[in-house]
């Protein structure tokens, strides 16, 4: 496994690989790797000759400096995990390497970024687009892999790729959510939960799955009300939003069409914010 920390060094390594006509799979991460990340890397390895993983906590996608500061980081553990799977190249740049000057680009996502996460995290997806577009241009992979837990982010990255980065010819691959044994969607933020919060956090997926699997019994409004009130009845949890949206436009829907709609939720466990989603299909 090759570890690089600057763009020139990465390009030098990749040039030799691409010269041999090796296909490149790319998994961008912010570190604090868990089984969800590792599943993306394994899938990328199964489909490509070379797998590149980046570890970079991107400051432009954080709305709060406190949130950026407390984001979990453990490079030593991350590298140990990567050594045990088929990861060929790890790119771990510093902020100055990725942002030698301020990135003032503004992306137009035709409203995809104004709902759900975007409504509560102003500018978040523009920051995501800044770093993803930069990484795509640096690595220039054949395929890039993202987890479906970040449902809205995947939709926005696909839009970014199709409308701003078309010339790179990168295929964006969305991979299934990996869950803990109790159903909680795996996330780097889970390690920030205290014991009680972690125990109660599984209620998020359990409640959403229970009612969404029985969606025919309820109106959309009734389904939303049931899920929100049940999760909020737990003293450790507070729903920020729960919505049922069209898979393409991300707008709220009046009726559920299984192959076209997804339920999305954000919940606070103390000060830790957790997201999840349920595909009706």
Keywords:
281 residues, alpha/beta, six-stranded parallel β-sheet, 2 domains, 39% helix, Rossmann fold, three-stranded antiparallel β-sheet, 9 strands, Pantoate--beta-alanine Ligase, Chain: A,domain 2
Provide a concise account of the structure shown.
It contains ten helices and nine strands. With 281 residues, the chain is α/β, with parallel strands linked by helices. The protein has two domains: 2-175, 3-Layer(aba) Sandwich (Rossmann fold), CATH 3.40.50; 188-279, Pantoate-beta-alanine ligase, C-terminal domain (Pantoate--beta-alanine Ligase, Chain: A,domain 2, 2-Layer Sandwich).
What would you say this structure looks like, in words?
- With about 280 residues, the chain is α/β, with parallel strands linked by helices.
- The protein has 2 domains: about 170 residues, HUPs (Rossmann fold), CATH 3.40.50.620; about 90 residues, Pantoate--beta-alanine Ligase, Chain: A,domain 2 (2-Layer Sandwich).
- About 40% of the residues lie in helices and about 20% in strands.
- The protein has 10 helices and 9 strands.
- It has a 6-stranded parallel sheet, with helices on both faces. Strands 7-8-9 form a 3-stranded antiparallel sheet, covered by helices on one side.
- A hairpin with a 2-residue loop joins strand 8 and strand 9.
- Helix 9 packs antiparallel against helix 10.
Secondary-structure map:
Layout: E1 2-4, H1 7-19, E2 24-29, H2 35-47, E3 50-55, H3 65-70, H4 75-83, E4 89-91, H5 95-98, H6 117-120, H7 124-139, E5 143-147, H8 151-163, E6 171-175, H9 195-212, H10 220-232, E7 237-246, E8 261-269, E9 272-279
Parallel strand pairs: 1-4, 2-3, 2-5, 3-4, 5-6
Antiparallel strand pairs: 7-8, 8-9
Helix pairs in contact: 7-8, 9-10
């Amino acid at each position: 496994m090759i570890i690089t920390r600057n763009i020139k060094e990465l390009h030098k390594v990749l040039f030799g690989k691409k010269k041999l006509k090796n296909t490149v799979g790319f998994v961008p991460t912010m570190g604090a790797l868990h089984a969800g990340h590792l599943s993306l890397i394994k899938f990328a390895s199964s489909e490509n000759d070379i797998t590149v993983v980046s570890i970079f906590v991107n400051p432009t996608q954080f709305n709060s400096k406190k949130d950026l500061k407390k984001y979990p980081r453990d490079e030593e553990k991350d590298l140990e995990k990567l050594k045990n799977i088929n990861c060929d190249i790890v790119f771990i740049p510093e902020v100055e390497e990725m942002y030698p000057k301020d990135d003032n680009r503004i992306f137009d996502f035709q409203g995809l970024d104004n709902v759900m996460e975007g409504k509560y995290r102003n500018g978040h997806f523009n920051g995501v687009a800044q770093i993803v577009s930069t990484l795509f241009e640096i690595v220039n992979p054949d395929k890039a892999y993202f987890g479906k837990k970040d449902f809205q982010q995947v939709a926005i990255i696909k839009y970014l790729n199709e409308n701003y980065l078309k010339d790179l010819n990168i295929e964006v691959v969305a991979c299934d959510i990996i869950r803990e044994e109790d159903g909680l969607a795996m996330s780097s933020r889970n390690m920030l939960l205290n014991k009680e919060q972690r125990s109660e956090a599984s209620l998020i997926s359990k409640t959403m799955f229970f009612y969404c699997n029985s969606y025919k019994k309820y109106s959309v409004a009734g389904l939303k009300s049931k899920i929100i009130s049940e999760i909020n009845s737990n003293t450790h949890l507070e729903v920020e939003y729960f919505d049922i949206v069209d898979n393409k436009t991300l707008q709220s829907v009046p009726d559920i069409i299984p192959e076209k709609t997804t339920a999305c939720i954000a919940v606070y466990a103390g000060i830790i914010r957790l997201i999840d989603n349920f595909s009706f299909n």
